[in-house]
Write a structure and sequence with these properties.
This protein has seven helices and 22 strands. Bound molecules: zinc ion. Zinc ion binds next to helix 1 and helix 5.
Length: 297
């Protein structure tokens, strides 16, 4: 789906919750913006643009920092903004870490849709991948290549019966496929929790905001939302981190076991090696052969 015009929200939205890692209460204020403002966090009056240049923390979440101020665990909101086509927004954050809500992006999306999405006057801009690109770390890698649309695939390789070698391929041109990704919750292993807590992480984690595995069983009484929920969540993280490029990507992305750090390396390499062209929506639509050029205002 290609949106023709840049978007923001119709009216201010307040979202309250707690941080997954900090356990701290937090209030977000989402504020409408103008064309070319981009997506910007505001923390203690410091503007932190939601761009890869400011990404500096990747341990179990993605953090952004500028002038001594940080915002943490931005990826699920970033994915929600990607899925709703929002490219201009100010986000005031009352505490360092964003709310985890139910561990997925769906509640952010519902709030945004309730407030209303508006098209602005300027055309949307896209990053059209123009060449093959790979980043790797040990056996993990992410590959990108030109494609008429946006596809993001995550391939797992876990020594766990539920996750195992599952993969999910998100295709932006398939109607409502985003819901498969947006509803997938974050997850962890019971065995990891002590390790995380010793490092000051997962303090706000509970069965209300994360899927917890004990070996090959799911501890949440309601079970999984999808049998492949964990890999769908990894696609959600990938989509959210990729949006730190500052514009949506047209291309196909394949991640084998990648995480936040590798996602960020991929975005940095795209920029450093000029592996994309910046194009207006109308140019992107004109260059597509037809099948995938589904247009929305
Ligand atoms: Zn996540």
């Amino acid at each position: 789906m290609i949106c023709k015009f840049q978007r923001t929200i119709k009216r201010e939205i307040t979202i309250k919750g707690i941080g997954l890692h900090s356990g701290e209460p937090v209030t977000l204020k989402l504020i409408p913006a103008e064309s070319y403002d981009g997506i910007n966090f505001i923390r203690n009056n410091v503007l932190i643009p939601a761009r890869i240049e400011y990404a500096n923390g990747f341990e179990f979440s993605t953090s952004l920092s500028r002038e001594g101020q940080s915002v943490r665990t931005v990826e699920h909101l970033m994915a929600a903004l990607y899925f709703t086509g929002i490219d201009n927004l100010f986000i005031e954050v009352s505490s360092e870490e964003l709310p985890i809500l139910d561990g997925s992006s769906i509640l952010f999306i519902e709030k945004i849709k309730d407030a209303g999405i508006v098209s602005l006057n300027e055309e949307k801009i896209y990053a059209v991948i123009n060449d093959q690109i790979t980043v790797s770390d040990g056996d993990k890698f992410i590959k990108g290549r030109p494609y008429e649309g946006f596809v993001a695939t995550f391939q797992a390789s876990y020594n766990n019966k539920i996750i195992g070698n599952k993969m999910y391929r998100y295709d932006s041109t398939v109607k409502d496929d985003f819901l498969n990704v947006a509803k997938a919750r974050t997850y962890c292993f019971l065995e990891e929790i002590e390790f995380l807590r010793e490092r000051g992480l997962a303090k706000g984690g509970s069965l209300d905001n994360a899927v917890v595995f004990k070996g090959d069983t799911v501890l949440n009484p309601e079970g999984l939302r999808f049998e492949d929920e964990p890999v769908k969540h990894k696609v959600l993280d990938l989509v959210g981190d990729l949006y730190l490029l500052g514009m949506p990507i047209i291309g196909e992305i394949y991640s084998y076991k990648g995480g936040h750090r590798l996602n960020a390396s991929f975005v940095r390499k795209l920029i450093e090696e000029s592996k994309f062209d910046v194009k207006y929506a109308s140019e992107v639509i004109d260059s597509m052969s037809g099948l995938n050029a589904k247009i929305s205002s």
